[in-house]
Amino acid sequence: MNRIVKSGAARPIKRVRDFLARPAFDPEAERIAAEILRDVRERGDAAVLAAEKRIDGVALTAKTMRIGAKELAAAEKATPSAVKRGVREAHRRVTAFAKAGMRPDWQIKTLHGGILGERFLPFERIGVYVPGGTAPLASTSVMTATLAQVAGVKEIVAITPCAKDGTVNPVLLYALKIAGATEIYRIGGIQGVGMLAYGTQTVRPVQKLVGPGGAFVTAAKKLVYGEVALDQVAGPSEICVVADGAANPAWVAADLLSQIEHGTGKEKALLVTDSEALAKAVDAELDRQLALCSRIGRMAPTIEAGGLLMVVTPTLEDAADLADAFAPEHLEVLTKSPRKLLPRLKRAGAIFVGPWAPEPAGDFAAGPSHVLPTGGAAAKFSGLTVEDFRRRTSIIEYTKEDLKDALPVIETFGKIEGLDAHARSATIRFGETGRE
Questions:
Q1: By the 8 A CB rule, do 172 and 78 touch?
Q2: How confident is the model over 39-95, as pLDDT tens digits?
Q3: Which residue spans of the chain are classified as CATH 3.40.50.1980?
Q4: Coil/strand/helix, residue 384
Q5: To 10 degrees, what angle do helices 400-416 and 420-427 make?
Q6: What is the rounded distance in angstroms from the CA atom of residue 34 to the CA atom of residue 40?
Q7: Is the Cβ–Cβ distance between 408 and 433 less than 8 Å?
Q8: Ranges assigned E (strand) in 278-319
Q9: HSE value, Cβ hemisphere, 13 Å, CA-based, for 316
């Protein structure tokens, strides 16, 4: 299949429209998720353990689900010193960014001496999902739990899939420990989502569940919304690169492959450019670099199925508009003057500006969380931040004169909406007529 097509942004050709219209949710995944979640809700631990055995081939018990102190200590010992330094440095950077992003409590005075404001308090118990299937994402441990740690959450419950022998990648466990996880369970998938959302005989439910996952985890999170608060739609990874003829084709190809590498088969990689010469050069680089990838067996089928597309547009502005319509999880701008395009780029989980900010810098080191909206959800959702782990409460402290000043407004809306008891709650303080 030819990976290069020509299209405008205002009226994209069908192949481009189909690429842009990828669904955020998989109906079949939702059907399967609904069945497993129903079982977990009804039977608790037994259903979770049965799903682990049936789906992942893992034999666990209620006692062995949780990773204990000895296993964490062994994981720390097994993690090389250089790796530990890298994990701690990533944790330091994410912590610094999160602290800088925390909103302080604030208040203002009313006209008559009262107080209005907002207060921010951490959740007491939250859950983080750390993928561990095709690749154990130790970085996600840092990019989720650290934010809860900075927010002041006391109970940070992490779940992650394990291998068939029940083991979990030691670096992932070490990262969770550094990031402040207080409970860790070797449970993943739909059953893990249900366990944290509903609670079981062994595990208490959480107030909020965050973190990325594949189609089944994403579907499960959607279905438990309301039972538990959620962050966003964070499913299979995707990237869009906006580039002009000045971009280095080898760098562009490497950036596109960086997300295809996740290997679930549902990743999306899009190049939009006003240079056909660049697209052709990138096309050649893709084949050269793909042959060097250790995960080529997972990546090639995704590309062959149309998960990677390069669109040549009439102008660079068209390229930017097409990228904005895609609303990607990750958006790179590799042009001579990248900041000139930023006003046109409004819908993306994270934007990487210029040739020295490749997407993996955001995945591992920069500071912002790499948990970002996918499937076009960046048009409606934002990436994970420290504020996702805190509740915002408004504070209203009126004086007698403040309430008296507001009476006409309260009475007006009480009358408009037919809610006379609402109005009376205010007017009765001054006599039924609103006067003392």
A1: no
A2: 999 999 999 999 999 999 999 999 999 999 999 999 999 999 999 999 999 999 999
A3: 4-22+235-366, 27-232
A4: coil
A5: 160
A6: 10
A7: no
A8: 308-312
A9: 17
**Nearest by Cα to 282 from 260, 252, 309, 304:** 252
Two structure tokens written together for 248: 């280095």
Q: Comparing C-alpha atoms, which of 315, 308, 312 is closest to residue 285?
A: 308
Residues that are catalytic: 329-330
Burial class (CB in 10 A: 0-12, 13-18, 19+), 223: buried
DSSP state, residue 65: S
Residues 102, 150: contact at Cβ < 8 Å? yes
**DSSP letter at 398?**
-
Beta-bridged to residue 125, according to DSSP, are 155
Distance of CA 412 to the CA centre of its chain: 43
> What is the architecture, at CATH level 2, of domain 4-22+235-366?
3-Layer(aba) Sandwich (3.40)
Q: In the numeric block, which tokens belong to residue 369?
A: 């969380």
Q: Which residues pair with 393 in a beta bridge?
A: 119
Indicate the fold that domain 27-232 takes in CATH. Answer: Rossmann fold (3.40.50)
Pairing between strand 106-109 and 115-122? antiparallel
pTM: 0.90
Amino acid of residue 386:
V
In whole angstroms, what is the distance from residue 228 CA to residue 199 CA?
Answer: 11
- Residue tagged 């129903």 (tokens): 38
Encode pLDDT of 179-218 as tens digits: 999 999 999 999 999 999 999 999 999 999 999 888 899 9
* Closest by CA position to 240, among listed 229, 251, 252, 227: 252
